[in-house]
Write a structure and sequence with these properties.
Blueprint (H helix, E strand, L loop, with lengths): L2 H4 L2 E4 L3 H11 L5 E4 L4 H6 L6 E2 L3 H7 L3 H6 L3 E3 L1 E5 L6 E4 L8 E3 L2 H14 L3 E3 L3 E8 L2 E7 L8 E3 L1 E4 L6 H5 L4 E5 L2 E8 L9 E6 L2 E8 L3 E8 L1 H4 L7 H9 L3 H5 L10 E2 L4 E4 L2 E4 L3 E2 L2 E3 L5 E2 L7 H20 L5 H24 L2
Parallel strand pairs: 1-2, 1-12, 2-8, 5-15, 12-22
Antiparallel strand pairs: 3-7, 4-7, 5-6, 9-10, 10-11, 13-20, 14-17, 14-18, 14-19, 15-16, 16-17, 20-23, 21-22
Length: 359
């Protein structure tokens, strides 16, 4: 019998990629333990940028068996995107010709909770507020020390470890694997509350002198905004203060108008102080190896201009589960095929991004 069926698989990270891969694996009849170092209350309430799903996401949500739950939730339909990219004339990309007809701007916290709930319902043992101590490969198994209030700290044996820790790539870095960066970028992120809807449901992108703005309405009367900038050019002049955020917003035209900026004051209320986060694009030098692989942002990250970060996370989760299932069936090439697909996807993305930025 395959060692993958004799011992549980450990998924490290309970974001979209981690919850999705745990779901897929459990439905293959495998024992799965999924952990996250954040407490359950933090997981269910944290505000995170990355709230766009294209129409094609419907197929993945059906594969995850969450489509009906997703459809019944309070997610916002998005009928397209508009951009003022180095021009005052807008360009539109609408979903009218797509069979689904629209994408979505989602409630990210509710979406992630839905994926975690589904994972639990199919038998995944989910543990929040849990971290890893020692992790050692011993023959065909991993000896991993899990540290939390409800788990014994003695090392446990796992057949496979999946890195779903986001941009930190904690497992891969512990194995000495670094990330290759295609482009470095930061984002000044802010979430707003409003009592009135925006005039349209599109995502709006607008370039300014030293970066570009993104904004989109999300459920519950909220708006997600992000100012993207290159560290080498703007890091010394961009801070996370409210005053700096308003000053940068005032340098835009269409985004400022959309958010009702008048005389330096925004009609919408900030839900929390703006925050600077990483928004680079890159890929691990190695996305998988003997007894492990990385999914989602832990494996590779896209520039937010692509608006496919969430989609990529779920696609990589599905493909990772397929690769592991192939190992169970005795196919030794499935991890290599997974790595090849991830690299091909990243190269295609790089070509798209360079064309968009003109570099």
């Amino acid at each position: 019998m395959s060692v993958l069926k004799q011992r549980p698989i450990l998924v490290v990270g309970l974001g979209p990629a981690g919850a999705a891969v745990a779901n897929f694996l459990a439905r293959l009849g495998l024992e799965v333990i999924a952990i996250d170092r954040s407490a359950e209350s933090q997981l269910s309430t944290r505000l995170r940028i990355g709230e766009s799903l294209p129409p094609d996401a419907k197929h993945l949500l059906k594969q995850l068996d969450v489509w009906q739950t997703f459809k019944a939730a309070n997610h916002q339909k998005c009928y397209g995107n508009q951009a003022y990219w180095h021009t005052d004339k807008p360009t539109f990309h609408d979903f009218v010709q797509h069979p689904v007809g629209h994408g979505w701007h989602i409630d990210r916290a509710a979406f992630e909770q839905m994926l975690r709930d589904k994972a639990k319902s199919v038998g995944v043992a989910v543990h929040s507020n849990t971290s890893i101590g020692e992790m050692v490969r011993d023959g065909d198994v991993w000896q991993v020390e899990l540290k939390s209030d409800d788990l014994c700290s003695n090392p446990r044996e796992f057949s496979f470890v999946i890195d779903a820790t986001g941009r930190q790539s904690w497992v891969a870095r512990k194995l000495g694997i670094e990330r290759l960066y295609e482009a470095e970028q930061l984002a000044l992120v802010a979430f707003l509350q409003t009592s009135q809807d925006l005039k349209d449901s599109t995502s709006l992108v607008e370039t300014v002198e030293n970066g570009w703005w993104y904004s989109a309405q999300i459920p519950n009367g909220r708006v997600a905004t992000a100012f993207m900038f290159a560290p080498s050019k703007q890091q010394q002049t961009v801070s996370s203060s409210v005053e700096n955020w308003r000053s940068l917003l005032s340098q835009s035209q269409h985004t400022a108008e959309r958010l009702g900026l008048v005389e330096g004051k925004c009609e919408f209320v900030l839900l929390a102080p703006p925050k600077i986060v990483a928004a680079d694009s890159g890929i691990l030098q190695q996305v998988c190896g003997k007894g492990w692989l990385a999914v989602g942002d832990a494996a590779m990250t896209y520039d937010p201009i692509a608006s496919h970060g969430l989609m990529m996370s779920m696609v990589s989760a599905r493909d990772a589960a397929g690769a592991i299932n192939g190992l169970i069936d005795g196919r030794d090439d499935t991890l290599g095929m997974y790595a090849q697909r991830m690299c091909q996807s990243f190269m295609q993305y790089c070509e798209l991004r360079r064309g968009f930025y003109g570099v």
